[in-house]
Amino acid sequence: MARVSSELQVGNLSIPAQLRELREFCGREGWEVVDEVAAEGESASASELSRRPSLVRVMELAESGAMDVVVYHESTRLSRDEELAHWLINRLSRHGVRLVDASKPMVDFSTSDGRFLYSMDAALASWMGRRIGDGIRKAKREQHSRACQSGRCRMHMCGARTVCRWWLRRRGRLSGGCLRCGCRGVRTGRSLTG
To answer: Are the C-beta atoms of 147 and 165 separated by less than 8 Å?
Structure first.
């Protein structure tokens, strides 16, 4: 199983590189590849199985008895949600399917020590995902703060020009938010200078 987290990454070579490495790994182990599941644009932080079609496919294969091993590139490619990671390994083991992390091939997750390492990996992947999110939110707040100070809010993804609510409130001209993208600025038909 290979994964990239956003639609922006789908066109790069990450998925083919991951799949190539996984094929080589399976070849060295003498395992036949029955299917390749690529999670293009899926967030590993998603906690609902319905938001992870690739994992739904893996479960369908496991339930049908089509495979006995799921090989994944490394823990952050599988899941960044601890609860989903534990649900997955428990559900797969009920169907007699083992999980194998290609970056740690010597670890047998069916043993007590292996399950402990899997739990640690799941916890670290979850923590890393939250830390990345914290950094992104911090950068967006700083970008927004700088935009506010200059009189322009560019914290929107729709391409519409907006003026920050803070800036408008300061000038006594506050009205509703951007209807196009829901950002906290106000869409204007002209460029404003601070």
So the answer is: no
Q: Which residues pair with 162 in a beta bridge?
A: 153, 187
Place of tokens 């935009």: 147
pLDDT tens-digit readout, 75-108 = 888 888 889 999 999 999 999 999 999 988 888 9
- In terms of domains, do 189 and 99 share one? no
CATH of the domain at 45: 3.40.50.1390
Distance, C-alpha 118 to centroid of its chain: 19
What residue type is assigned to position 83 of the chain?
Answer: E
Q: Find tokens 């200059």 and name the residue.
A: 150
How far is CA 190 from its chain centroid?
37
Q: Do the Cβ atoms of 54 and 3 come closer than 8 Å?
A: yes
Exposure of 59 in the CB half-sphere (CA atoms within 13 A): 15
Residues 114 and 157 in one domain: no
Question: Is 125 within 8 Å of 101 (Cβ atoms)?
Answer: no
Please state the pTM of the whole predicted model.
0.64
Rounded CA Rg of the chain: 22
The residue range of the domain holding 95 is 2-131
Q: Tell me the two tokens of residue 157.
A: 């993804």
Phi, psi of 70 (to 5 degrees): -115, 120
